[in-house]
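Hi R.,

Here's the chain you asked about this morning:
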Amino acid sequence: MIPEYAFGVRAEDAEVTLSDEHTEYGWFGLDGAARAVRWDSNRTALWELDHRLRHGIGCRVA
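And the predicted structure, written out as tokens:
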């Protein structure tokens, strides 16, 4: 098994710069993001992030 790490960041009024390996980006709500990703592990990470944000679990303000 290979560990996978997922991160969530606040991106208010952020200007996005894509590296050469990416061609596009989008802003999604939870359902749209879950439809946009390919792998179940990504959907799980989205669900966990949503759960943590809704319940104030492990959230830090930098």
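Residues 27-57 form one domain.

Let me know if you need anything else.
M.
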